[in-house]
Design brief:
Number of domains: 1
Oligomer: single chain
Order of helices and strands: HEEHHHH
Structural class: mainly alpha
Strand content: 5-15%
Number of helices: 5
Distance between the termini: 26 Å
Strand order of the largest sheet: 1-2
Length: 146
């Protein structure tokens, strides 16, 4: 049975991650730009670049998995990886910024407000994956064959 992949939850999680912003100096920088610049950085090792891509590739690849329990595991692990990446960027740009900002309250409020859609999308994606996993019957046995 060929199942049409459903990219919507994965794409929503990735897009909302890219829309979260951090304040650096006088600039408001989206995480998507920070992520793209980190991948293009020539000083960054290949293993780190691959590890940065794992959550995004995992979320997109989970759309092609037919078995709901396996898909639930891949979605949950990839979403957890994206949350860890989000926390890492928040720590590097909000908690310990390299460039101090003249507006310290905005440096903390802007990432908090723009993180709300990301967290809602992650929770909704994991909830949807778990619901579909639990709704699928474990064993399909036909007692009339016995």
């Amino acid at each position: 049975m060929i199942v049409k992949p459903k990219f919507a939850p994965a794409v929503i999680c990735i897009l909302t991650f890219c829309c979260v912003t951090a304040v650096s100096g006088d600039a408001v920088i989206p995480f998507g730009y920070i992520f793209a610049e980190a991948l293009r950085d020539p000083d960054l090792q290949w293993t780190v670049r691959i590890l940065l891509l794992v959550p995004i590739v995992g979320l997109l690849a989970s759309s092609f998995i037919n078995h709901s329990r396996k898909r639930c595991i891949v979605v949950s692990g990839s979403a957890l990886g994206l949350i860890i990446l989000w926390l890492l960027v928040l720590i590097l740009f909000v908690v310990y910024p390299r460039i101090p900002t003249p507006y310290p309250t905005s440096a903390k409020v802007v990432p908090a407000v723009t993180s709300i859609p990301f967290l809602v999308a992650i929770v909704a994606t994991i909830t949807l994956a778990v619901r579909k996993s639990v709704a699928e019957p474990r064993f399909q046995t036909n007692r009339s064959q016995w």
